[in-house]
Here is the input.
Amino acid sequence: MKVGYFPGCSLVGSAREFNESLQAVSRLIKLDLVEIPDWNCCGASSGHAADHLLSLALPARILALAEKTGLRDLLVPCSACYNRLITTVYELQANPRLKSEVRELIELDLKLDVRVRNVLEVLKEAMEADGSSRIAKPFAHRVACYYGCLLVRPPKVVQFDRPEDPTSMDELMQAIGAEPLDWAFKVECCGAGMTLARTELVAKLCARILDDAVARGAETLITACPMCHANLDMRRGDIEKAAGRTFTIPVMYVTQAIGLALGLGPKELGLHRHMVDCGPLLAAATQSSTVNLQS
Amino acid sequence: MSRIGVFVCHCGENIGATVDCAQVAQMSSSIPGVVHSVDYKYMCSDPGQTLIKEAVKEKKLTGVVVAACSPRMHEPTFRRACAEAGLNSFLCEMANIREHCSWVHEKGDQTTQKAADLVRVLVEKVKRNRPLRPIQVPVTKTALVLGGGIAGIQASLDIANAGQKVILVEKDPSIGGHMAQLSETFPTLDCSQCILTPRMVEVAQHPNITLLSYSELESLDGFIGNFKARIRKKARKVDEKLCTGCAVCTQKCPQKKIPSKFNAGLGMRTAIFVPFPQAVPNKPVIDIENCRYFKTGKCAVCQKLCPAKAVRFEQEDEILEIDVGAVVCATGFDVVNTDFFPEYGYGKYPDVINGLQYERLASASGPTLGEIRRPSDGKIPETVVFLACAGSRDRAKGIDYCSKICCMYTAKHAMLYRHKVHSGKAYVFYMDIRAGGKMYDEFVRRAIEEDGAIYVRGRVSRIYERDGKLIVKGADTLLGGEPIEIKADMVVLATAAVASPAAEELAQKLHISYDSYKFFSEAHPKLRPVETNTAGIFLAGACQAPKDIPESVAQASGAASKVCGLFSQDQLSREPLIAAVNRTAPPQYSSCTGCFLCESVCPYRAIERETITTRGGKPIRTIARVNPGLCQGCGTCVAVCRVKAIDLDGFSNSQLYAEVRALA
Amino acid sequence: MSEFEPKIIAFVCNWCTYAGADLTGTSRMKYAHNVRVIRTPCTGRIDYMLILKAFSAGADGVIVSGCHPGDCHYTSGNYHARRRWMVFRSLLDFLGIDVERVRFAWVSAAEGAKWAEVVNTTVADIRRLGPYTEYQNLIGRGVERSFQV
Amino acid sequence: MAETVRRTSGQTVVNDMEALRQRARELLDAGTVQVIIGYANGSNRRVRPFFARRPEDLERLILDDRCVLNLAVYLRKPEVKALGKAAVIATPPLLRSILQLAAENHYQESEAVFLALDSAGNVLELSSAEQIAGVLGSLPGSTGQDACVPSADRMPALSAGSTDRQARFAFWKQEFERCIRCYACRAACPMCYCEQCLVDSNQPQWIPVAAHSIGNLEWHISRAMHLAGRCVNCGACSEACPAGIPLNLVNQFLADRIQQEFGQKAGTSAKLDYALSVFSGSDRETFIK
Here is the structure.
């Protein structure tokens, strides 16, 4: 399976391990990632709040470059980028006048025929297509799948999974031998948009997420969003202060969990880059039987 | 050759001040076919009308044009005058030179010229009018009432008490509908069953009412006064005539764990069952899906024990064909279930229930005998959260409308809970309180002020279970959007009232229109609220839109009076301005090509297929035919017909053509 | 030379626009005298041929008006009319016939003021466009003018 | 001007004529049909409709890109019906018109047999609308401009982007003025099956019958309106017009507009889906003020 790839700034910066683990897993499951040349910022952090036209033009340029590769699918692992790109497609498809305005602005041909895909759907498809990949070490842990707010919303735009109770990540985790838990904060906001402006509020929101996951017996949180990861992992000190208690639960990217199950080492998957130590989790006894991915 | 009379009215100064009426009469006299033309101060006055009548007789007029006010004002007056003089009333037309001319233009030649033009248009029209007679249609004086809820019961009783025959069809084994499920009713808190059951019994005993319970409409054909209904009487597997209602069968049936629909899934029933003790008719039905005998061929306990030998396993559905003159559709509504709400747990928490389930909990005849006990463990909840607008007014859920009854019943629920559990806490989340109605707002105030229900203005974003409690997360928007969390023991969702699942199919059987939510459409939202666009079919109750009991009853009585009005005549008289397909000499028989492109434009389904046969019955061709009983005269088919095989009396092709040419 | 007085023929439905124009009258609102109203039961009845016939009868402009969507006395005549007009208007435009000379409007029975406005703006528009000689020249030597009963 | 766009190439595009003839022969021999309706060479390098009733006639059958006249019109003619059941050499436009006729109750199941060639050169024998609808999309030449008839992009006044209304008016005025009101367009059109055409009705005389400007314009407007949502774009009208008026452009334009606005396309199914007898509450009405 061959797809266009737009990493976005997080994956080459604060979320390098997401990129590293995604690339490592992709090699094993025969997912060919073709990085879009000369990509630019998607405008997620402040662009879309500042100027509507700009907020469409930035993603539109990425889409136009992706179209040039001739690939039908564009994988956008960062959920903030994913949301911006898919929203742009939605808005411009509905408004031809706006589309031509944007096309003039970016000075590139824009057909909007590329499918913007998130990491969950692409991984699922690639793993199913590559029937040969086998689980070397089942990821036998109780996990809380944390989707965050951007992957599934707004439902009419992204049209992915059930907006209030998504299951696609849970299914992926089940496929690698993990036990996804039924918990209440799957799509709750972690407050990423306010992480600099109102840190103490964000810490409170994150604390509730961690609290419910721990209370239900999760050994790790699984996420697919660099923003969520940054908040829940890097802000752990603030969170503990807000909650008045400590949390040892690590937060892993979905690709890292899959990588471990496929037999990759922690280093290859960038697990050492996390603030919260994944060591104790990895040290816990795991079964070593081989399970077929699709079973 | 036409002999047309033109009568120009001054309407005192109203026309005369701006239009030179004498000149209009003068100009009209030169229109070919006009043999008489006069002006007069008040045409509608007695002397004015006499002027017309005399001219009709003396000049042997074949048509009359009165140039005066709007035909919406005085057309009946002048048509009556013509008829009295012996001229067919449809040979009289009015030229509107007041509302459309003298009142809207300044005095001058151009205004006079316009009045003369308008007269000329109508002269050309009236030349092509033909004498018509009002259409007479016989009336079958039996009403079909669909649905035996409170609306259907009320409509049936009203019609029956007026001396007309009624056939009441109910799909369930008993009449009563949703109202029979309710505990107490707002705003008086009288017991729902106590006020309903006497009515149910009255229906069963009324000599003019034939009750067909456990039956459904298969099809309806025909038109106002002359419908043919086919009704499927589903097999009860019990001979209603023999059964005495002793209930031995329902007590002894070994299959006891079937969720009871009447108890909204909170109680259990047997496979042979009567939905509730006060059911009418109080005769059991065998649910063959769950009956051990029908599943395994063994058991038949009911049959063995029945003292009246009334159980009939071999009984089949029966189709009844009935002639009726009018239909009252009172098929009611449904509420969405808790599994409609992913954010509230997709129905997986047993203690998140909907309003109807709560009614059963609060009802003395319900599974807990009226004690508020939560479904999961039967404990009395200490904190109950009520959510108004669960689904209603929520675009994301595809339900834009207000379900109308929830504000009131939620207040009632909170009140009943506080009456029954004095130490309990009742929270109500609401968007805004819609308590318009007699004693309604007072009722809500009572819930808040006297019964201590805690009203929180805000919506609930999520409900989840934690440590045996239901965590209800919401916001209090009156206190600056402060997020709040309530640890509840039970949550009641006032889930949206929606059209019943079979509504669309039924509407198609009845040929009535429905809105995007599948609620049936009334003929006019303000002025014809109980009629449908199909003449002779009326609406009552919540099948039209969510409604409470008094509204449903009022509409049912309205529908009943419409039916009685219809039945007060032996024949129906209708304006004859309707369309017809032409007939010509053989071998064509009609210029209709039989393409039937007109069929779907007709809002009244008046276009039928008619096969022309030889004398020996051999089909020659199939052409369109307009059913005169159904046609309302809109003329949309006329405009669609390429060959002009359909024409419309009063607005015929030759008339409209001539009217335009009159302005050349 | 006297000023050009446009000739406007209006086809209106009985239940909304005709009644709306009655209301204009009862409210004594003044509007241009140039319009001649032909009453039809419903916009669904208004055949495109009538619009052509109006032009060949020398009209410089045509108004077609009825109930707003959803208000049709016959529930759906105006919806069918709307589609037909869309197609007809496209066709006229494709053939180079000036579609500005046909004014489609929804005027309800309550919109007396709107009827006056529709007539006045149409008359003003047609005044600006001038006599419809382009079409009338096609009529030639009165082929149709010989029409009589 | 329109003369320049007429194509009379006459190239043979069908190599499997023998297979078609063979199947036609079998049908005649078996008595399944009594006549084969197809095309044959006429005078002056033109094709003409051909009615083969004997096996030896079949040698004269041809099928190439000049065969634009829509043979469906003959199915409704009493004199053709009198010959017995027919098999028709079918092109995709003809099959589309059969579907539309079936939708309008003017083709009955198994009334005739249609012989069409699929892309592999196999002969398909079709008689029900259902069969036709099933294979139509896969037949060679079933998409796009499959008739050798005028197309709008060759008319400067009509080409996309032309906003010059007066140029369009002048163009059509000139075209329609050449019309001699022979009604060959009507006779060639399978959808013009009305026994009494509007133009032939004289009470009232909606459309002047004389061949002068106004009557011609009104006739062609009426023809276009009557075919709006029904024309299957076979191009037979343009082919038949002795004055060379590119009539199909008008029909095609309306067909495109209707597809854009309402998503409906004539000749795609035997189920009646006539754009002007249905409506949607959300139809666009920007032009209604």
About this structure: Chain A has two domains: 2-119, 133-292. The longest strand of chain A covers residues 142-146. Strands of chain A lie at 2-5, 32-35, 73-75, 115-117, 134-135, 142-146, 179-180, 220-223, 251-253, 291-292.
